[in-house]
């Protein structure tokens, strides 16, 4: 029995290192014997030793699997993840509802967002708070969620982070989809993903900490029926994959396990928030991280600096470089162009960049696989048109993942799909999942949109329209002229829900330029005419800008003008701006389209939108109402003394109640808002989406009626974030003051500081000054005990 004693191990450390297989076998036999002998304590000790062996073997497999990546390799050889990985900007996210806007709009918003006050989270620290079981991470396609997952696993496998975790099991939804018709236990499901993994029997052991990683919720094709699926608590009991997943997420199965789920924003609501401990968001690269990426990925540092300088000169390229995948596309194109001393124009628009990327990939693969300097035009055209047709037909559906059926509907022989992924593997991917089936995808939604636009453009000018019009988008082909075709595309994009055709339209208009067609002509010869007057299209777009006051609408139209190389309108507005980014508009009468251009210029400036000061532009209500989209993107708005009325309050109420608003501090002091205006503001404060933290309403002509309205608004909103309210120099009454002070005493209320001082000219009346800070050493007094504390002006 001494050999079985924990004080007399069966093998020495040297022997274990020499023959771990023998050690594992011996431990299994010993544990089995101890179980029969009911030597529970000793058995558990040896089980931990066995678990340690399993973990070491498993970590080795995970390390081999994730240490290299192929997707971003420009020369076909895998890159070491640790060498090229750039840390991403991950922050805590508001638990807002579903957001189905086009993801390029998310990028534009991210480019305007100041993250100085946002607490960044390292992916390795996701489960540092032991009370958090499930983390849901949102991020647009191509932002780097999957790379973050791979780095998270690799750091664990290499012993760099999360060493309290026993096992990490990555279970991509893309692969789970292929098992949706199977009935199996959780243990058997894991065996499907990790065949031969003996450690799976130990996941329920005491002291075994498990992290399950579900990457790509947006690709999930399972119903995830949380309401009606039966409960399941036994990891060895068989059920459908959908039942297994819902019970894992609910915490019925493996309640001690931690779950990390990643998703695109539009699919985040598939999991009820009550089952999520923390929501985070991948913001993509910060400006500093963009530079770090290019300096890491391009060996010639002087060339890397040239590339950084170039992308900074183009706002549309710089915005897209929030995406790691677009940084890779940019590096692929510009590294070649800037190092080859060619006379080609360096891409400044998205269409130019994607056109050069397509040409590079096709030529590079043709040289690699066929040893030809120039690709075969006929084969290239067939390949691109087939992929373009697939991209076009799937665009309206928002699909990033395609099945065999989808390919066959576009005339792509599934057996020949490898040809397409071989000709341009960096554009189209064929993936083997669990050896149960194949799925296909483009590397990013923007590549799909570019190919869809290219297909639509070539199909129209060559009169090669699809026989069966499967989507509303196919109506484009009913036009007779190129001008009508492009106008129709503009209309379709404006009608599309949440801007789903924004990028498609930019590409389509960009491809209509002769310069971009010339680039493609060597690969894709045209048989039809694309002649049209660019000026007509420009004027049509300008007309649509006048008709569409919504910034979401007209901002993309300005990007479209940029793709058409039309910059006159923006340059005109920029001429009004001084070097500090401000302008005096009091002596300038702007048209509606010029106001829209000003909003576009301000939202796309390189300056961070930390503070918006209306006094720097024009102290007028019209100026504020026109620039509300800029206010919405700013953290602080200074609007004091700007001749504002209740009409401004109506617009600002909409801003502060928007779930996308960045506004946290609002100063409306010295404006005659009166009670009517304050009541309108109060409507915004009632909204649970309101994230306003500080509100100044000094000397705004507010009476007790307005005070009561504010108190009722804050009382009715349990989600209120308001911490400071300044109501100095108003005609207050006891009722409103008492309601606000009572509210402040409520421990569930976030209001910490309340300023209520009388107008200095009214001090001869029975007025009092009340300044309360919940965190001060002086206790909050009852209304009857209020005294004059101080007389000061506490706003700027």
From TrEMBL:
<keyword id="KW-0067">ATP-binding</keyword>
<dbReference type="Pfam" id="PF14484">
    <property type="entry name" value="FISNA"/>
</dbReference>
<dbReference type="Pfam" id="PF05729">
    <property type="entry name" value="NACHT"/>
</dbReference>
<dbReference type="InterPro" id="IPR041267">
    <property type="entry name" value="NLRP_HD2"/>
</dbReference>
<keyword id="KW-0963">Cytoplasm</keyword>
<dbReference type="InterPro" id="IPR041075">
    <property type="entry name" value="NOD1/2_WH"/>
</dbReference>
<dbReference type="GO" id="GO:0005737">
    <property type="term" value="C:cytoplasm"/>
</dbReference>
<dbReference type="InterPro" id="IPR051261">
    <property type="entry name" value="NLR"/>
</dbReference>
<dbReference type="Pfam" id="PF17779">
    <property type="entry name" value="WHD_NOD2"/>
</dbReference>
<dbReference type="InterPro" id="IPR032675">
    <property type="entry name" value="LRR_dom_sf"/>
</dbReference>
<keyword id="KW-0677">Repeat</keyword>
<feature type="domain" description="NACHT">
    <location>
        <begin position="133"/>
        <end position="267"/>
    </location>
</feature>
<dbReference type="InterPro" id="IPR029495">
    <property type="entry name" value="NACHT-assoc"/>
</dbReference>
<dbReference type="InterPro" id="IPR027417">
    <property type="entry name" value="P-loop_NTPase"/>
</dbReference>
<dbReference type="Pfam" id="PF17776">
    <property type="entry name" value="NLRC4_HD2"/>
</dbReference>
<dbReference type="Pfam" id="PF13516">
    <property type="entry name" value="LRR_6"/>
</dbReference>
<dbReference type="InterPro" id="IPR001611">
    <property type="entry name" value="Leu-rich_rpt"/>
</dbReference>
<keyword id="KW-0433">Leucine-rich repeat</keyword>
<dbReference type="InterPro" id="IPR007111">
    <property type="entry name" value="NACHT_NTPase"/>
</dbReference>
<protein>
    <recommendedName>
        <fullName>NACHT domain-containing protein</fullName>
    </recommendedName>
</protein>
<keyword id="KW-0547">Nucleotide-binding</keyword>
<dbReference type="GO" id="GO:0005524">
    <property type="term" value="F:ATP binding"/>
</dbReference>
């Amino acid at each position: 029995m001494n050999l079985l004693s924990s004080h007399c191990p069966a093998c020495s450390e040297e022997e274990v290192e020499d023959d771990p297989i023998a050690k594992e076998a011996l431990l299994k036999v010993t544990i089995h014997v101890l179980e029969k002998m009911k030597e529970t304590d000793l058995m558990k000790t040896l089980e931990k030793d066995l678990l340690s062996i399993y973990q070491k073997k498993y970590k080795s497999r995970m390390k081999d699997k994730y240490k290299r990546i192929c997707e971003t390799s420009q020369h076909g050889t895998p890159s070491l993840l640790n060498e090229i990985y750039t840390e991403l900007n991950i922050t805590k996210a508001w638990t807002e509802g579903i957001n189905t806007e086009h993801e390029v709009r998310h990028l534009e918003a991210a480019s305007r967002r100041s993250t100085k006050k946002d607490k960044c989270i390292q992916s390795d620290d996701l489960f540092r708070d032991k009370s958090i079981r499930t983390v849901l991470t949102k991020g647009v396609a191509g932002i780097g969620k999957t790379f973050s997952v791979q780095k998270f696993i690799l750091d664990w496998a290499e012993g760099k982070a999360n060493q309290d975790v026993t096992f990490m099991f990555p279970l991509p939804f893309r692969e789970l989809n292929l098992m949706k018709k199977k009935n199996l236990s959780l243990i058997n499901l894991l065996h499907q993903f990790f065949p031969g993994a003996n450690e799976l029997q130990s996941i329920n052991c005491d002291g075994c900490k498990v992290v399950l990683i579900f990457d790509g919720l947006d690709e999930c094709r399972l119903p995830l029926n949380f309401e009606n699926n039966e409960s399941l608590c036994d990891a060895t009991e068989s059920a459908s994959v959908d039942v297994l997943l819902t019970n894992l997420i609910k915490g019925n199965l493996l309640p001690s396990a931690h779950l990390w789920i990643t998703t695109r924003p539009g699919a985040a609501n598939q999991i009820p928030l009550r089952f999520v401990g923390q929501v985070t968001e991948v913001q993509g690269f910060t400006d500093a991280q963009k530079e770090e990426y290019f300096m890491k990925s391009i060996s010639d540092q002087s060339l890397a600096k040239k590339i950084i300088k170039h992308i900074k000169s183009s706002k549309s390229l710089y915005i897209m470089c929030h995406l790691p995948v677009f940084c890779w596309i940019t590096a692929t194109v510009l590294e070649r162009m800037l190092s080859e001393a060619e006379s080609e124009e360096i891409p400044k628009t998205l269409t130019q960049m994607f056109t050069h990327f397509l040409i590079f990939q096709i030529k590079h693969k043709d040289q690699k696989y066929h040893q030809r300097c120039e690709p075969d035009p006929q084969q290239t055209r067939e390949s691109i048109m087939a992929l373009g047709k697939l991209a076009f037909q799937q665009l309206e559906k928002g699909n990033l993942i395609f099945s065999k059926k989808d390919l066959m509907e576009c005339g792509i022989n599934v057996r020949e799909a490898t040809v397409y992924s071989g000709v341009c593997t960096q554009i189209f991917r064929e993936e083997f999942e669990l050896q149960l089936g194949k799925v296909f995808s483009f590397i990013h939604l923007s590549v799909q949109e570019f190919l869809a636009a290219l297909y639509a453009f070539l199909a129209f000018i060559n009169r090669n329209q699809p026989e069966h019009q499967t989507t509303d988008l196919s109506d484009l082909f009913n036009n007779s002229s190129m001008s009508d075709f492009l106008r129709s595309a503009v209309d379709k994009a404006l009608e599309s829900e949440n801007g789903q055709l924004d990028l498609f339209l930019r590409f389509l208009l960009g491809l209509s330029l002769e310069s971009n067609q010339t680039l493609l002509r060597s690969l894709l010869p045209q048989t039809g005419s694309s002649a049209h007057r660019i000026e007509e299209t420009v004027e049509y777009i300008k007309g649509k800008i006048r008709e569409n006051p919504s910034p979401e609408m007209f901002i993309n139209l300005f990007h479209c003008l940029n793709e058409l190389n039309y910059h006159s309108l923006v340059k005109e507005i920029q001429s009004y701006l001084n070097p500090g980014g401000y302008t005096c508009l009091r002596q300038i009468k702007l048209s509606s389209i010029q106001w829209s251009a000003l909003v576009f210029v301000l939202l796309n400036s390189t300056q961070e939108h930390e503070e918006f000061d209306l006094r720097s532009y024009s102290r007028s209500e019209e100026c504020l109402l026109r620039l509300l989209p800029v206010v919405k993107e700013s953290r602080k708005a200074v609007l004091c003394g700007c001749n504002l009325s209740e009409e401004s309050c109506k617009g600002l109420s909409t801003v502060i109640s928007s779930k996308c608003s960045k506004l946290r501090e609002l100063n409306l002091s010295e404006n005659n808002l009166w009670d009517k205006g304050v009541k309108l503001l109060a409507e915004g404060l009632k909204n649970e989406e309101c994230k306003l933290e500080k509100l100044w309403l000094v000397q705004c002509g507010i009476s007790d009626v307005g005070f009561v309205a504010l108190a009722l608004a804050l009382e009715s909103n349990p989600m209120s974030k308001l911490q400071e309210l300044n109501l100095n120099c108003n005609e207050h009454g006891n009722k409103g003051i008492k309601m606000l002070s009572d509210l402040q005493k409520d421990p569930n209320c976030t209001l910490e500081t309340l300023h209520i001082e009388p107008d200095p000219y009214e001090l001869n009346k029975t007025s009092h000054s009340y300044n309360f800070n919940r965190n001060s050493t002086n206790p909050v007094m009852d209304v009857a005990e209020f005294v004059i504390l101080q007389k000061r002006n506490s706003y700027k």
